[in-house]
Amino acid sequence: MPRPTKRHPERGDARTRLLEAARDVIRQKGFTATTVDDLCKAAGVTKGAYFHHFESKEALGVAAAQFWTETTGAFFRQAPYHAPEDPLDRVRAYVDFRKSIIEGVPAEFTCLVGTMTQETYDSYPAIREACAESIFGHAATLEADIEAAMKERAISADWTAASLARHTQAVLQGAFILAKATGDREIARESVDHLKRYIELLFDRPSDMTGAPGRLGAPAKST
Amino acid sequence: MPRPTKRHPERGDARTRLLEAARDVIRQKGFTATTVDDLCKAAGVTKGAYFHHFESKEALGVAAAQFWTETTGAFFRQAPYHAPEDPLDRVRAYVDFRKSIIEGVPAEFTCLVGTMTQETYDSYPAIREACAESIFGHAATLEADIEAAMKERAISADWTAASLARHTQAVLQGAFILAKATGDREIARESVDHLKRYIELLFDRPSDMTGAPGRLGAPAKST
DNA sequence: ACTTACATACCAACTATTCGGTATTTATTC
DNA sequence: GAATAAATACCGAATAGTTGGTATGTAAGT
Question: Domain containing B150: what range?
Fold first, then answer.
């Protein structure tokens, strides 16, 4: 459906430009502080175009979250961390990759849907849901590798692949907040290092260490 | 300075009531979406009172962050997790405590300054700074216990007590985002469990891992 | 002919902030 | 300790600018 505009044929259609503007501006100013005019200016379109493509600001928020899901989905799918044979190596490579793309200023490396979640979770259920789908959909792409790694190393744990996958996202989202608070991306990378260390520790020790209670980090069941 | 109003003697002064309202409303709607009218209504004061105490909305944001620092500071200072003799037990107890206070709906258990950071880091440097002070000031209160635990167990690691303390806050902030995205506090608790498991694993093994990885919780004296 | 993709002008509601005023407390003086 | 002065705390209507959204029009593609 999107058709290259005759008026600005080189820059893609207005809808796409608006979504790209939303991605950039909202990560900088937040969803509420970003006005429709801001987006139109950034995208180089008029309000008429805006409301032709999005019936409301909320609708744009939903579309922006979905756009984020699609674009980052493609980005991660083609990323090099899937290459290793060993599934655990793929998980390691994923974390390394996430660390490596923490570059530039926060508005560039932070997560649009994480930001929008904070602002909209109570006021715009539709946006919240689109953000949740984005976050947990991405987390789900890690599950298979984690699961395979657990099987391969005979890890029988009190945690699941799904929960560890979600935890990686929590660490990243939290790391982004600390980076925004300081303006220092190093502080985000530091938390990713902790995440990596955690994963190493989880998989470092086989599960069937018979006789040693509370070895897996679970609080030792008191006798 | 704050003086109990004659008009509403039972509810404290207007300034305090506005800060409490800010704490509650901003956690629900976010900083930008929270209007001055919202705050006045929630606090039961007029706009005149508002602008008597805060010269701008930005100033209120700063004051709200500082109010958060003070109140949560007192709250954590008197919390029971400081009781254990063993410093590592105090760290464990801290994490358990943080998990235990994830109760009710997100607006109740999430962090005001984490929320505000996301929205204001680029537009309101003063607020960002107050939020950063709050987050890292709180993180700093964990450092001594972590440091002591490291010393006691002769952990010589490639991470510092300060960085682990910051990481705990990253995990919590990230956990809050996932909870907001789903509306489910369990998902936040899950990440706190991972954090706890990480800490157990970090301290489970003595630093001089000669032979078998550290089996005992007992501190193995490193050479 | 009909739909899609824009453009322009406009608006009603809302926003943060201002400001002249009153009430209440504190400080000072007698 | 009464009278008075000076702050401080609060009130609420008015304002100027901004906001998301609309109404209406036009030009291009099919």
Answer: 58-204
Taking only the tens place, the pLDDT of each residue in A85-124 is: 999 999 999 999 999 999 999 999 999 999 999 999 999 9
In tens, the pLDDT along A177-204 reads: 999 999 999 999 999 999 999 999 999 8
Is B214 domain-assigned? Answer: no
| Structure tokens that stand for A195 in this block | 């995440």
What's the CATH code of the domain at A149? Answer: 1.10.357.10
Residue with tokens 């991972």: B194
Q: Does any domain span residue B110?
A: yes
Nearest CA in chain B to A115: B118
pLDDT of A76 above 80: yes
Q: Does B138 touch chain A (CB under 8 A)?
A: no
Please name the member of A163, A172, A187 whose beta carbon is closest to the beta carbon of B166: A187
Which of B85, B212, B80, B194 has its CA nearest to residue B149?
B85
Nucleotide minimizing C1' to CA distance for residue B32: C15
What average pLDDT does this structure show over A6-12?
52
Classify residue A83 by burial, with Cβ atoms within 10 Å: 0-12, 13-18, 19+: exposed
